[in-house]
Specification:
This protein has about 190 residues and is mostly helical. It has one domain: Heme Oxygenase, Chain A, CATH 1.20.910. Helices cover about 70% and strands about 0% of the residues. It contains ten helices and no strands. Helix 4 runs antiparallel to helix 6, helix 7 packs antiparallel against helix 9 and helix 7 runs parallel beside helix 10. It is globular, with a radius of gyration of 16 Å.
């Protein structure tokens, strides 16, 4: 986990700098647009990852899927099922991750975002008046269990990435994911 954090620090910082969280968390339209962008990412990412992971890893990751949380949040803001039909989705070729280690590196990025989601949840409560996870369940994810979920993921990840080649592939997957998310979420 420490190596992944160190190796992806510049990509993580770049993404954080380019997303105007203060404005997003204080403007409902911008916030819903961001949820829709995240949904456009996860609706491609999760099926792709599921199809390429070993069964044991899929079983571990199943309760960590986020697409349904995003869908629920958008429904809370008035979206209907037909609103998802024409929603832009990240091009699948952008998410090319070859093998389990690269996909686990990508999951490092996505699971790590649940830590920041706790901060954003409080900001959304203050600035948009959201409460009880309604409309922001994606950012609440594991609620009070977020630290435990992160530690469990870290232990699982460490057990899965046993070789230097696996670690290198995981770092490459994490970097790619940060870059794809930055381009997708910022529209660049």
């Amino acid at each position: 986990m420490a190596l992944l954090c160190h190796e992806t620090q510049s990509q993580h910082s770049s993404l954080e700098r380019k997303l105007p969280w203060q404005e997003i968390c204080s403007d409902q339209r911008r916030y819903v647009d961001l949820l829709a962008r995240f949904y456009g990412f996860y609706s491609v990412w999760e099926p792709m990852a599921e199809s390429r992971l070993h069964q044991e890893t899929n079983d571990f990751m199943q309760p960590r899927r986020k697409r349904s949380l995003l869908r629920n949040d958008l429904h809370w803001f008035g979206w209907r099922d037909r609103d998802f039909t024409g929603l832009p989705k990240v091009p699948p070729e952008c998410l090319y991750l070859d093998g389990q280690a690269m996909i686990l590196g990508a999951y490092y990025v996505l699971e790590g975002s649940t830590l920041g989601g706790q901060i954003l949840s409080r900001r959304l409560e203050r600035q948009l008046g959201l409460k009880n996870g309604d409309g922001y369940s994606y950012f609440c994810s594991y609620g009070s269990r977020v630290r435990d979920a992160w530690n469990q993921f870290g232990n699982f990840l460490s057990a899965q990435l046993a070789s230097e080649a696996d670690m290198s592939a995981a770092v490459a997957g994490a970097k790619t994911t940060f870059e794809v998310l930055e381009a997708w979420l910022t529209g660049r």
